[in-house]
Design goal:
Shape: elongated
Number of helices: 7
Radius of gyration: 26 Å
Largest sheet: 5 strands, mixed
Structural class: alpha/beta
Strand content: 15-25%
Number of domains: 3
Length: 278
Amino acid sequence: MVVPGSVPRELSRLEDEVGAELFQRVGRTLRLTPAGQHFKKHVDVVLHHYDLGLCAVAESVDPEKGLIPLAFLHTLGTWLVPPLLGSFRDQYPRARFELHQHHESGLVQKLLDGTVDLAITGGDPDTPTISWQRLLVQSLWLAVPPRHRLACRKQVRLAEVADKPFILLQPGYGLRDTTERLCREAGFTHHVGFEGEEVETLRGLVTAGLGVSLLPLPQMATQPSSTAESAATYLPVTDVDCTRDIGIARLTGRTLPPASERFLRHVLSSAPRILQDK
């Protein structure tokens, strides 16, 4: 820090108040002493909370341009979240978003530690301090390789692939838990072939003939079975209810900032229409 002239009186008064030398004076340059470095860490925290306070006040005065911290599942980032954000910004163009993508347990932690106001999840987190509302029910389809013996079928029972390797998301993802539950309901314990962190990776592994998977339809699909010989085929399942809930969660009893409350109302009214349009 270069200071014109003598050291400002404010800095001298600060050092007197703290009771230690915070700055080392080298000519017209100021450098933090070890004591100053320690003091700065705590001051930075105070300034951060001060900035948060200013943002909160700004939101209370003008909720249309507040910051909305939002977390959501990776699998929802390609089709549900973008239109929700886009349609909200059409109405409130000055609104700002802070986005976080996680698996289910990560979403819960983001809510509990106060990092986000809202989280779009796959299913009820079933945590006493979190309130959850269903937005829509999404169908899951059995994805099989393009030359699989079932690829020419119109529908399938999940039990018919009990002996096949399943391609799954890693533990901690809601779609993984749903798949395991549905296999149990169909009367078998699945065999894990491969695990991944992204649904699109799972689609690619199925297409490569490495196993089967329970997945939502691809974003651009217009019919259950694939029309491309090189792509995976998606079949409706008849022996178990292959669906998953998608909902939005918030901390129980917490009053949301105005911008987040407005976005919550928008999501509740808009999400079902997005699934219908997909």
